[in-house]
Amino acid sequence: MTRAALLFLLFSCGSAFAQMTLTFPASTTQLHSNTEDFTNYPLPVGPYSDGSIPTVVAEGQMTEATWRLNAPGTATLDVMDDLRQQLESTGFELLFECETQTCGGFDFRFSTAVLPEPLMHIDLGDFRFLSAQRLGEAIPEYVSLFVSRSNEFAFVQMIRVGAADTPPVVSEASPPASTVERPSLNTETLIDVLEQSGAVVLEDLEFETGSSNLGTGPFASLDTIAGYLNDAAERTIAFVGHTDAVGLLQPNIELSRRRAQSVVDRLISDHGVSENQIRANGVGYLAPRATNLTDEGRAKNRRVEAILTSTQ
């Protein structure tokens, strides 16, 4: 599926850091973008408590931007998890992250900077926030993200404060997902590997960017596993989701479980597999199969694994 890479070049070309890149689905619409040459922004670094939010004062050039994602069924957790990973991959350090209740609910929402409707939509029952910093330059760089949603759309607000002479926002289209090379999968030996080793990685699965939703497929691994289970009602399989080590443990566990559940749901709805034969679990980054110090290793760690749980 085609994606649009919205490249936000948010610091001087002479910076020692890589350019900050945020990738959204192709159906994303930018609702607002504004830059002030020099101002200050009270960046939240903790939840609302005792009548206020703890903040640090970020000074410098400030850019405010908002986007609307055409993402029915996509959880705010999934959107924020993907954006957090992208920030951390370019050198940002997480300062604070929260969801509706841990942020402070209504009081947090109305005690910090949020652009008005229709530029930004906040559902008071479902929003997430994070703040991050990137040090090492003469002027520190700070970013905050708000994520919320309506019935059909997800909404993202970004406030960035840092050095002046920031390059403008640039939009580019990334190649269709079909052109991205996927690991090879030998479906002829998949069941043999599953029965002999007890587990097999489903290398051909693809998930939508920033989402736990399984791609449209078809996926040969699911065809093969469905045939195996439908021919042997006594067999049972657990699908276990895994992530890389970017971000906090609990959000990664939740995302990995949601992705495994998407696999289970697809096997039931499209392949007629009995729900009594399959279940979903997630372990986040607790069971890596490669190093998390490289892009290649982190990509290998993001996976769904089928584990044979039958004992006879």
Automatic annotation (TrEMBL):
Major location category of this protein: membrane
Matches recorded under InterPro entries: Bact_OuterMem_StrucFunc, OMP_bac, OmpA-like, OmpA-like_sf
Record's GO cellular component terms: cell outer membrane
Signal peptide positions on this chain: 1-18
Domain OmpA-like residue range list: 194-312
Highest taxon, organism lineage: Bacteria
Keyword Membrane in annotation: yes
Keywords: Cell outer membrane, Membrane, Signal
Gene3D superfamilies per record: OmpA-like domain
Localisation per UniProt entry: Cell outer membrane
SUPFAM superfamilies associated with the record: OmpA-like (SSF103088)
Pfam family, one: OmpA
Protein's name according to its UniProt entry: Membrane protein
